[in-house]
Design brief:
This protein has 3 domains: 199 residues, 3-Layer(aba) Sandwich (Rossmann fold), CATH 3.40.50; 76 residues, Histidine-containing Protein, Chain: A (2-Layer Sandwich), CATH 3.30.1340; 119 residues, Rossmann fold. Helices cover 47% and strands 15% of the residues. It is built from 16 helices and 13 strands. Strands 2-3-1-4-5 form a 5-stranded parallel beta sheet. The relative contact order is 0.10.
């Protein structure tokens, strides 16, 4: 599947439309794609391929990048911008994939493709719930209740993703696609034939403007990645080397931010000019935050003294350290199962599961989390036990905020070295 520029392929007379497929689960999508590949001989690229490519382009793990598709955002994301950074790399990987010919692109990443790419035939395969429940029973042996729960969960994920990318409330909205194929009304062969026939229409024939849009998409994605790697998240639009950056959050020193954004974007290959503007979100209450990769931003504070721990969280935020709060051991362990804190500040005396038990469980399940004990009731024996269990440090209340900050930074340095 050789990569060439779009204009070269037009001159060679070999450039074919790209087929993108988005679907609900249990809609015969796998069978349709198999049939399409047999008829077209196209190559298939799925979300897992795009995620792997994004992982190679970045220093992020594939597991972290794939979380960008989830409807649930990390509680630390407002400090880390990890989701936005992952999506920037997913866009770049998708843009690079679109440089190839004879391609079927399937999955969430199809909604990253700009509408300006008119040589992409956008297909959605969906069916009514009754049909999908029956298919789930046939394919997976699921009961009606099991199938309904899984379908609802997966549809919610797709709805959240489509709303984020296309501002559409309904992921199956016909306006988003060229073909909305009903799997409950058409056979696999009929859907495949419908797609093939439409891929041969003049309206999706690759033209200079559409192929130029691929280059614009690649450039905008490259700029977005460059900005994300420096801790920035703004809107990016590129056209023929001219880049426009849109700031959608309030910032105290707008001119300074604009100059910093421009200096980063101007270094990206292919950028000719850079302009900035403020978007409609700029006038909302949310404040623009640049993420500092050198400072800890995924700190979990665990303490049943609510006023103390909330004040501590605010004092850390002043020092550009992002944190989340749990008020008991059980809540902390549940949060760790769902999210990925890097440093934990842990009290020992708490109702229910105490700090020593939390430390023991964390080191068994998530040994890379660095745990700093911060207690007002500990003993020398407690300190000895905690250090043997793998605590990074043992501090007593009341603690000097500068000492705690320095300890957190040292824990963060150990994590970075790992």
């Amino acid at each position: 599947m050789p990569a060439c520029s779009g204009l070269q392929l037009i001159k060679q007379g070999v450039y074919m439309p790209i087929i993108s497929i988005f679907n609900g689960i249990f809609c015969e999508e796998e069978q349709v794609i198999t049939e399409l590949i047999q008829q077209t001989k196209y190559a298939l690229i799925q979300d897992s391929d795009i995620t792997a490519s994004a992982g190679r382009l970045s220093n992020l793990s594939e597991a972290k990048i794939s979380k960008a598709f989830s409807s649930k955002t990390s509680i630390f994301n407002k400090f880390t911008h990890e989701r936005e950074r992952s999506i920037a790399y997913l866009k770049l990987a998708t843009a690079e994939a679109l440089s190839h010919q004879e391609l079927i692109l399937e999955g969430f990443c199809t909604h990253l493709i700009p509408r300006e790419l008119t040589h992409v035939l956008r297909v959605c395969i969906i069916a009514d719930v009754k049909y999908r429940i029956a298919t789930a029973a046939k394919q997976k042996g699921l009961s009606e209740a099991e199938a309904m729960k899984l379908i609802r969960t997966q549809d919610e994920e797709r709805a959240a993703w489509v709303h984020m990318q296309a501002q559409a409330g309904d992921p199956w909205n016909a306006a988003l696609y060229d073909i909305l194929a009903p799997a409950d009304k058409l056979s696999v062969a009929e859907i495949a034939q419908l797609i093939v026939e439409n891929s041969q229409k003049e309206s999706v024939k690759p033209g200079k403007r559409s192929l130029k849009a691929v280059d614009n998409f690649k450039l905008s994605a490259a700029v977005e990645v460059a900005l994300a790697d420096e801790g920035h998240h703004v809107g990016v639009k590129a056209e023929d080397g001219r880049v426009v950056l849109t700031i959608n959050k309030q910032v105290l020193m707008l001119n300074r931010l604009e100059e910093e954004l421009k200096s980063i974007a101007e270094k990206v290959a292919g950028v000719k000019t850079v302009a900035t503007k403020v978007g409609p979100g700029f006038h909302q209450a949310d404040i623009y935050r640049k993420y500092n990769f050198e400072l800890p931003a995924k700190i979990l504070l665990v303490d049943d003294e609510r006023e103390f721990v909330q004040t501590l969280s605010e004092r850390l935020l002043i020092r550009d350290m992002g944190s989340a709060v749990a008020y008991d051991g059980a809540s902390a362990l549940e949060l760790i199962r769902e999210d990925e804190p890097e440093v934990m500040i842990l009290d020992l005396r708490m109702p229910g599961i105490d700090g020593i038990e939390v430390l023991k469980k964390v080191k068994q399940t998530n040994p890379n989390i660095e745990v700093i004990i911060l207690t007002g009731h500990g003993s020398e024996l407690d300190k000895e036990i905690c250090m043997k269990l793998g605590a990074f440090a043992y501090l007593q209340k009341p603690v000097d905020i500068d000492e705690l900050s320095e300890t957190i930074k040292k824990a963060n340095e150990r994590i970075r070295k790992k």
